[in-house]
């Protein structure tokens, strides 16, 4: 459950990152590949382009935190595509940790405990929805 205050904290802190998303994306992948090295071989595209796509999606979700039902179909489709990219359920925790660490490194004093907890909550909602969608796909029996 994300409170209105938490939504505000996530949106305000993300606004501070927006001018430096290229740097944030590079930092995010650097940290992800340390936390979960087995994710690195799954990426085949240009990483700058990939970072742009990631932050564009995050911006959409952050913007819609007060009406998540609007973006859940987007998150569900994204999660289903991620199964084909080779993303595993355990990787969602690694992505969450890399994201929080990146925000902490970039925002410094602007990323206080309350803001970090708010991000944890928001990422939990998004990743929870994506994991549920991914599990539903994986659990589907193979068609004869
Ligand atoms: C909140 C979580 C995540 C978000 C918002 C996100 C976002 C995205 C976006 C927007 C793309 C571009 C392609 C597309 O739209 O289908 C993408 C691709 C990709 N993502 Fe994620 N992602 C997330 C979690 C993960 C996780 C947990 C993994 C696990 C390793 C992962 C690995 C990949 C890979 C391998 C690609 C394809 C790269 C390529 O084409 O070379 N992502 N992601």
Fold and architecture overview:
With 144 residues, the protein is mainly alpha-helical. The protein has one domain (4-138): Globin-like (Orthogonal Bundle). 76% of the residues lie in helices and 0% in strands. The chain contains six helices and no strands. It has helices spanning 4-17, 21-35, 47-63, 68-85, 89-107, 113-139. The protein is globular. The termini are far apart. Protoporphyrin IX containing FE is lined by residues 39, 42-45, 50, 53-54, 57-58, 78, 81-82, 85, 87, 91-92, 95, 126-127, 130.
Short summary:
This protein has 144 residues and is mainly alpha-helical. It has a single domain, classed as Globins (Globin-like, Orthogonal Bundle), CATH 1.10.490.10. 76% of the residues lie in helices and 0% in strands.
The count of helical stretches stands at: 6
Low-confidence stretches: none
List the domain count as a whole number.
Answer: 1
Order of helices and strands: HHHHHH
Core attributes:
globular, Globin-like, mainly alpha, single chain
Topology:
Elements: H1 4-17, H2 21-35, H3 47-63, H4 68-85, H5 89-107, H6 113-139
The chain binds protoporphyrin IX containing FE.
């Amino acid at each position: 459950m994300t409170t209105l205050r938490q939504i505000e904290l996530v949106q305000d802190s993300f606004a501070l990152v927006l001018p430096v998303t290229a740097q944030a994306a590079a930092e995010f992948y650097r940290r992800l590949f340390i936390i979960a090295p087995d994710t690195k071989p799954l990426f085949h595209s240009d990483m700058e382009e990939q970072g742009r796509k990631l932050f564009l999606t995050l911006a959409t979700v952050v913007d819609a935190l007060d009406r998540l039902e609007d973006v859940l179909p987007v998150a569900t489709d994204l999660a289903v595509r991620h199964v084909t990219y080779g993303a595993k359920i355990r990787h969602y925790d690694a992505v969450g940790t890399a994201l929080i660490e990146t925000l902490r490194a970039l925002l410094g004093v602007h990323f206080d405990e309350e803001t970090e907890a708010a991000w944890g909550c928001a990422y939990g909602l998004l990743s929870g929805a994506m994991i549920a969608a991914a599990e539903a796909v994986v659990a589907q029996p193979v068609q004869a």
